[in-house]
Write a structure and sequence with these properties.
With about 160 residues, the protein is of the alpha/beta class. The chain has one domain: Rossmann fold, CATH 3.40.50. The chain contains four helices and six strands; from the N terminus they run βαβββαβαβα. Strands 2-3-4-5-1-6 form a six-stranded mixed β-sheet.
């Protein structure tokens, strides 16, 4: 299975980035098969579908993978939808629990499957109190915009080709 991962430590914006990507895919004609993508951000799992020049594309979207219960829910989503072409999910950073369990439960083999991982990090700013809030807000908006453009670029090109 082709896999796009948003990796990083807790609270760096992995799930929010995936949410924004899901909304953009819907805007580009993907159908939310089970109407699981929420109107405003919260964790979710969904299947997005669209027919393109390469045939029927099914993308499994998973925003949370913080514990075994959520990984079991992801496994069930994958098992219940064997026609999934692509998985988009969050994952913890290197050797941080439950990263290794993610691969075990999802059935993704790091040696065989196509995996692209976008590493995410916290945005921080230092300085006087007034400048910090303004600078951090601008930096965060810049960061989100770049992550959004990068994720769409990745899905548009090889090996995904879904847009």
């Amino acid at each position: 299975m082709k896999t796009l991962l948003f990796g990083g430590a807790p609270s760096v914006g992995k799930s929010e980035s995936i949410y924004r990507l899901a909304k953009k895919l819907i805007d580009k004609g993907y159908i939310d098969t089970y109407s699981m993508v929420p109107e405003s951000f919260e964790d979710f799992r969904a299947i997005l579908e669209k027919k393109n020049k390469n045939g029927q594309i099914q993308i499994a979207i998973n925003t949370a993978s913080d514990d075994i219960a959520r990984l079991i829910e992801l496994k069930n989503l994958i098992d219940d939808n064997p026609q999934i072409n692509i998985l988009v999910s969050s994952i913890r950073d290197d050797n941080f629990y439950p990263r290794n369990q993610f691969f075990e439960y999802s059935g993704i083999n790091e040696l065989i499957d196509t995996i692209v991982e976008i590493p995410l990090a916290k945005i921080t700013r230092k300085g006087n109190v007034q400048d910090v809030a303004s600078n951090k807000s601008r930096a965060l908006n810049w960061y989100r915009n770049k992550i959004d453009k990068l994720s769409l670029l990745i899905l548009t090109n090889e090996p995904f080709n879904v847009l």
